[in-house]
Amino acid sequence: MTDQPWITVIGIGEDGLKGLSPALCTLIMATDVLVGGDRHHEKVPDFTGERLTWAEGFGPTLDEIETRRGQQILVLASGDPLHYGVGATLARRFGADALRVFPAPGAFSLAAARMGWSIPDCQLVTIHGRPLDVLALHFNPGARLLVLSRDGGSPAEVAALMTNHGYGDSTITVLEHLGGPQENRMAGRASDWAMGRAAELNTLAIDCVGGENTATYTRAPGLPDDAFEHDGQLTKREVRAATLAALQSLPGQMLWDLGAGSGSVAIEWLRLGGERKAVAFESNATRVARMARNALNLGVPSLKIIEGRVPGVLPTVLPEVGPAPDAIFIGGGVSEVGVLAAAWDALKSGGRLVANGVTIEAEQALVNFQNEHGGELVRIGIERAAPIGGKIAFRPLLRVTQFAATKS
User: Fold this and answer.
1) pLDDT tens for residues 391-403?
2) Which of 82, 157, 268, 360 has the fewest CB atoms nearer than 10 Å to its CB?
3) How confident is the model at residue 1 (pLDDT cuts 50, 70, 90)?
4) What CATH number is attached to the domain comprising 262?
């Protein structure tokens, strides 16, 4: 038998209590403890019970809520509390069974209604509490984005980002105070953006238009090599696609990329979406900086980068990088003593290890490792057409020996 819900979460719009049913208004006024942001509390001026805000951050306020278990707790949220809202945070901390949730139309629904856009045909993104560069992942000609802003400065920042990525012809519509008496909209082209600071509460509707020479990138594995800044230390396009297929990525999984070089495999793993996570290990400081730029440019600023040589760095960073990874890729250093063993030991049970090697020493290490742990060995040979004199011929790339195994 599950516990009875003891936290009520009510979505509230810009119209405040007027947009709620009488029953929900009664719940709010009768609760023992009212939790919300300052803007939410301002909409309930006549409440006489205890108030809590998020001013100290989510962690301390959630602790305060915990100490009041047994009292009637009511949390006010914006719009739909379970769509980029506080409802998800409460469910993770206290469990879904602890909550009763009453959503209101959220910013995405209201923005789509104002624009006449079909929500399934839009990309729904938030930059509230997240790096601005996450938007770059969604830039494509013809894409429509609905974006929860961080603050009044977000429209100008988004316009500059889009222009830098070749999407300066895109139209950005700023929707302020959706659903309230101060609702307002303004629109302009990204490259010409000259409007002042918007209202702090705003949502963006973006119609993406790429320029004639704008680079467009698929989310499918195997981006062009020149999509990455690199010094040659790069898993080539065809091998990269085969590597990501061998890793058998699933939503929510964590990848470690050892000897990451330009970070191409970890970056493409993250570009698949689905709340995937990745940590890249690289000992060369210049490559570390280059990898960080690649992650930002390709819309995955969540890539965590650890500078250091494997396996030596692993014991010092294991508490920092979290639980055992679901998958590990070794793109560099396969033949170095202890690398394969350390990766195998760190991998969770049922996890996937993929390692690529091009030298005789690396191939021998992979053969020996397969003899001990099983798995598959594949040799990948790629030839690319290139000019030779006045004619065209196929030039072979270095053959890659790939080991793949599931840890049981």
Assistant:
1) 999 999 999 999 9
2) 360
3) very low
4) 3.40.50.150
Structure token digits, residue 203: 């949502």
Alpha carbon distances (Å) from 389 to 45, 393, 395: 81, 10, 13
Q: Are residues 263 and 380 in the same domain?
A: yes
What confidence tens digit (pLDDT) does each residue in 81-135 have?
999 889 999 999 999 999 999 999 999 999 999 999 999 999 999 999 899 999 9
Task: Detail the DSSP E strand segments found in 261-367.
Answer: 277-282, 304-307, 327-330, 352-357
146 contacts 112 by C-beta, under 8 angstroms: yes
User: What is the DSSP code (8-state) at residue 298?
Assistant: T
Average pLDDT over residues 258-271: 97
Residue 217 lies in a domain: no
Strand runs labelled E in 56-126 = 73-78, 99-102, 123-126
- At position 308, the amino acid (one-letter code) is G
Spatial neighbors of 6 by CB under 8 A, at least 6 apart, are: 69, 70, 72, 73, 98
Phi, psi for 249 (deg, rounded to 5): -65, 140
Half-sphere exposure of 256 (CA within 13 A, CB side): 33
Do 177 and 256 reside in the same domain of the chain? no
Final residue in a domain of this structure, among 104, 127, 155? 104
- Strand 171-176 to 184-189 pairing: antiparallel
Q: Within this chain, do residues 277 and 390 fall inside the same structural domain, yes or no? A: yes
Same domain, 120 and 100: no
* Beta strand ranges found along 228-375 (DSSP E): 254-258, 277-282, 304-307, 327-330, 352-357
Last residue of a domain, one of 45, 71, 104: 104
**Calculated CA dihedral for residues 42, 46, 49, 54, nearest 10 degrees:** 0
Based on the fold, state whether residues 100 and 112 are members of the same structural domain.
Answer: no
The radius of gyration of the chain from alpha carbons, rounded to an integer in Å, stands at: 25
CA gap 98, 73 in Å, rounded? 11
pLDDT at 52 over 60: yes
Query: Over 90: is that where the pLDDT of 36 sits?
Result: yes
| Residue 65 CA, distance from chain mean position | 28
